[in-house]
Amino acid sequence: MKAFTKHLPHYLSLFGILFAAFAGLVMFSYDKYFQLSVAVAASAAYVAWGVVHHILHKDFHFEIFLEYLAVAILGLTIIFSLIIRS
Question: What pTM did the predictor assign?
Fold first, then answer.
């Protein structure tokens, strides 16, 4: 629990990024291209957040970057398929 509270400001900023992305997807439901732009921006912000988080804690490795990038691409693939199909 101590580790979680130590990283709480970082997780709150990640939550803010994801909440803003969700709000953007909902508020702009009438514009698929803007939703796709919001999804790409959220994915880039997620990767940037991960890199900054690990650099600040001095445990950043290239494999960590690849992991965040893979999760972002997977998320983008899912969101793109949901937006395009609707």
Answer: 0.91
